[in-house]
Structures are given as structure tokens and as C-alpha cells.
Design goal:
CATH architecture of the domain at 10-175 and 215-241 and 278-293: 3-Layer(aba) Sandwich
CATH superfamily of the domain at 10-175 and 215-241 and 278-293: NAD(P)-binding Rossmann-like Domain
Mean pLDDT: 96
Strand order of the largest sheet: 3-2-1-4-5-6-11
Helix content: 25-40%
Distance between the termini: 40 Å
Largest sheet: 7 strands, parallel
Number of helices: 10
Bound molecules: uridine-diphosphate-N-acetylglucosamine
Order of helices and strands: EHEEHEHHEHEEHEEEHEEHEHH
Number of strands: 13
Radius of gyration: 19 Å
Length: 310
């Protein structure tokens, strides 16, 4: 597959009612036959485009998976148990969803000879020795979530080597944007915006000197679309921006974009929190022509706008 973009394909987006999956489904639906498989645990049916075929089901359910993968050309696998903290509390469920069910999905893809673009994560690296992080850096995940993503990131490569399946793993850094619903374990930007717009204090863990590479969801979508058509397969790529901000700076930006009087409060540091994270994206730029297009500031403004409209 070497086309510039995906057209006239039968595409499955797992987790397509969720944050990243629904943005992807929306980007694909005009020119392709899109199916969404989602169990609606954290996803929202309203975020699935009307013209997509919606299959309500769990990726652990063989029958639902078989129905969803029948005859597909490309699978974007976004369904996961995304809470790092949740995976610490319930490692077995995390493993069932993020590892075992993903392996089942790779088997289904093998039967269909479908390309798989898999959501991996920066969590596979654990505490980095240095930043920016390159794809070959040590992988030492600090949570069942990170370990589960590492296993399927490697399985994707192995399925290419062993069975010639076209697979690409995308290691997302800190994704944010409209549709990321604030909850106890959701991304920090959604939490801060929710706090600021609700008139509550913005809760920074520790001193807020930790840094993150926040990547806007449109750029995550861009990386996925490029991965779906590249002729370089069996590879894994960092998907971030190469820039990072401290959590304290983030809190200040959130105060500014929401124009609130919410004060910033400093709470206990989060156990096991990674201090510094930022992606070296040169491999994705070279192979996929991936280039972040939405600045942190612009992305934050758009995300705040979406929160206000909710
Ligand atoms: C995030 C993702 C994880 C992904 C990883 C990739 C979420 C929920 N987690 O983990 O799935 O694999 O990036 O790098 O999206 N913080 C506060 N106050 C809060 C909440 C968070 O100060 O109320 C701080 C945290 O201590 C942390 C930073 O914000 O230092 C980011 O936290 P979070 O959004 O949970 O993301 P990661 O832990 O980086």
C-alpha cells in the first residue's frame, strides 16, 4: 500500500467511540467504509460519525471481534484500558484488554491480511535515562499498562517478521484535545481545564517541575493516517512534538486560556511519576513524513473552547 491517503478501504477503528479513535473515525469516514468497535466503557456513541457502522462490543469478545474484522483492509487499534493507575489497581484486567485481546486482534488481522496500526505508548520507556527519547532507548515500564503496551508493540514487530503482516506501532506521548473527557485518571490537561472552568483549584502534583511532551490529537491522527499508507512496515515510532512544558507552566497556561481566578495548589507528588518526557520524532519525520502542525498553545485554546461548549 503506497497511496498518499486511504480511500475506498474497509477500515476498523477499535475504540472508535473514544478520544483518539473517534477523531480517527471522523477523519476517515468520508472516503472509506469505516467500522467502529467499542464497548462504550469510556467512549461515547455520540462521538462516532453517523456514516460509520457501529458495533457495540468488547474486544475480548471473540464473536464481536470476528464480526468487526471480517473483510477489513486496515485496522486502527485504539481500544485499551488507558488508565495507568487503573492498571496498577487491576493488572489482570489490564493484561486481558491491552495484551491478550490485542494479540487476538493481531491473529484476526493475520487471517484477513489486514494492515494494523497499533496504539503503543511512551509508557513503555518508563523512567528515561535522558530526553528526548529515541525509539531504541531502554524500555523499562513502571506500570502494568506500560508493560502491556510494550508486549503488543513487540508483537506487532514480530507479526511482521514472522508472518509478513503489515504492522506499525505508534508510541503516543501525552495526547490531548477536544473529546478527552476529564475523570480521575484522564490526562492532566483535561483535569486542569475541568478544574479551572469549574472554579476549583488547579492541583499540581509535587512541585510541578516534571515535564511532558503534549501532542494535539489532530497530529496523532496525522501520524496514524501516514502509518496506514507507508511502505515501511514492521516499525515503531514515537508520536509527540519534540517540545515539552513543565506541569507548573501548564497550570499557568490553563489559568490564562480559561481566564479564571482558580489558584494553583501543590499537592503530594504522585508515586512513581516520571520526571521528564519528550519525544525524539526524527524517525517518524524521516519515514512517515510526520510533522506536528498544532502548537501547544493553539491546541490548548481549542481544547479549552471545547470544554466551555460542553
Ligand atoms: C500519560 C497517559 C498514559 C500514557 C503516557 C505516555 C493519561 C491519563 N495517561 O501518562 O496513558 O501512556 O502519558 O507518556 O493520559 N498531574 C498533576 N495533577 C493532576 C494530574 C496529573 O500535576 O491532577 C501531573 C502528573 O503528576 C504528571 C503529569 O501531570 O506529572 C501528567 O500526568 P498524566 O496526564 O496523568 O499523564 P502521564 O502520567 O504522563
Amino acid at each position: 500500500m503506497t497511496a498518499d491517503r486511504l480511500t475506498d478501504q474497509t477500515i476498523l477503528v477499535t475504540g472508535g467511540a473514544g478520544f483518539i479513535g473517534s477523531h480517527l473515525a471522523n477523519a476517515l469516514v468520508a472516503e472509506n467504509d469505516v467500522r467502529v468497535l467499542d464497548n462504550l466503557t469510556t467512549g461515547d456513541r455520540a462521538h462516532v460519525p453517523d456514516s460509520a457502522t457501529f458495533i457495540e462490543g468488547d474486544i475480548r469478545d471473540d464473536e464481536a471481534l470476528a464480526r468487526a474484522t471480517d473483510g477489513v483492509d486496515v485496522i486502527f487499534h485504539e481500544a485499551a484500558l488507558v488508565s495507568v493507575q487503573g492498571s496498577v489497581e487491576d493488572p489482570l484486567t489490564s493484561h486481558e484488554i491491552n495484551s491478550t485481546a490485542t494479540l487476538e486482534l493481531l491473529e484476526a488481522a493475520r487471517a484477513e491480511d489486514a494492515r494494523v496500526v497499533l496504539a503503543s505508548s511512551a509508557a513503555i520507556y518508563g523512567h528515561p535515562d535522558s530526553v528526548p527519547i529515541t525509539e531504541t532507548d531502554p524500555k523499562d515500564p513502571t506500570s502494568p499498562y506500560g508493560l502491556g503496551k510494550l508486549s503488543v508493540d513487540h508483537y506487532a514487530r514480530l507479526y511482521n517478521e514472522l508472518y509478513d503482516l503489515e504492522t506499525i506501532a505508534l508510541r503516543y506521548f501525552n495526547a490531548f484535545g477536544p473529546g478527552q473527557v476529564a475523570g480521575d485518571y484522564s490526562g492532566v490537561i483535561s483535569i486542569f481545564l475541568d478544574q479551572a472552568l469549574g472554579g476549583d483549584p488547579i492541583t499540581v502534583n509535587g512541585e510541578g517541575t516534571q515535564t511532558r511532551d503534549f501532542v494535539y490529537v489532530d497530529d496523532i491522527v496525522q501520524a496514524n493516517l501516514r502509518a496506514a499508507t507507508t511502505d515501511v512496515v514492521g516499525e515503531a515510532y514515537n508520536v509527540g512534538t519534540g517540545d515539552s512544558v513543565t506541569i507548573r507552566e501548564l497550570a499557568e497556561h490553563v489559568q490564562a486560556v480559561t481566564d479564571t481566578d482558580s489558584e494553583i495548589v501543590y499537592t503530594d507528588p504522585r508515586p512513581g511519576d516520571i520526571q521528564h518526557s519528550s519525544a525524539d520524532i526524527s524517525k517518524a519525520t524521516a519515514d512517515l513524513d510526520y510533522e506536528p502542525t498544532v502548537s501547544f498553545q493553539a491546541g490548548l485554546e481549542r481544547t479549552a473552547e471545547w470544554y466551555r461548549s460542553q
